[in-house]
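Hi R.,

Here's the input for the zinc ion complex you asked about:
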Amino acid sequence: MRFGPAGIPTVCRTVFEALEYLSSSGLSAMEIEFVRGIRMSEETAKAVGKAAADLGISLSVHAPYYVNLASESREKVEASKERIRRSLVIGELLGATVVVVHAGYYGKDRVAASEAIKKGCEEIAEFLEANSMRVRLGLETMGKQSQWGTLEEILPLCRGPCVPVVDFAHIYARNCGRVNYREIMELVQGFKPLHIHFSGIEFVPVGPDKGNERRHLPVSSGGPRFSELVPELARFGSATVISESPLLEKDALLMKREFEKFLNLKG
Ligand SMILES: [Zn+2]
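And here is the predicted structure with zinc ion in place:
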């Protein structure tokens, strides 16, 4: 089981400093955020990948938010695919396990959107296979009603290099506070190690925007309860838990300690 932050810890200035810091804190994962653009050269990616491997830190990448594989604009779809491919290339050089993507929006036609996203994912899977790349394409469960990406939508697309990324805060928001941890972990049995995002979350409880995420919160400030996931994680066996809380590495450590406490008590 690995724990780490989504992005560079608040006390660090560079990604290299971050890796050293995480390693000395007892954390063993980090997600590199390209959410506002891919700002890393191939040379840097190789160097970061080597430093991470030397320190035993498993890396993942979050692709830009500005992606919509279901856009009605052909240009936007092509630009989205290019951003994903570029994230995957840098991810591969980093030695990242997975590149996490927000695949797209339903727009006017949910069925057409699902078809377009399926097609886009198949093309990207072909790209990964044609280039013998090891990095996976991770489809994240999304936290807004307008976004494609319930677990039920994602799972049928997960084969070959496409894998699910389970964001429990998003699932919690979308289902207005209901999460069945056991059921979810059973649905993703075939995907080990599983990539997980965890944080607290605030969501819209009523009205037309009901079930939309508002903002991520610290792990113990409302939202899914990590203590309820812990026994399911222990049973599942192999996963990377990324803290998307505003308290990044602090909450990654909090979750790690809670998980270890559970294992110790269980004996
Ligand atoms: Zn995300």
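One thing worth noting: The mean pLDDT is 97.

Cheers,
M.
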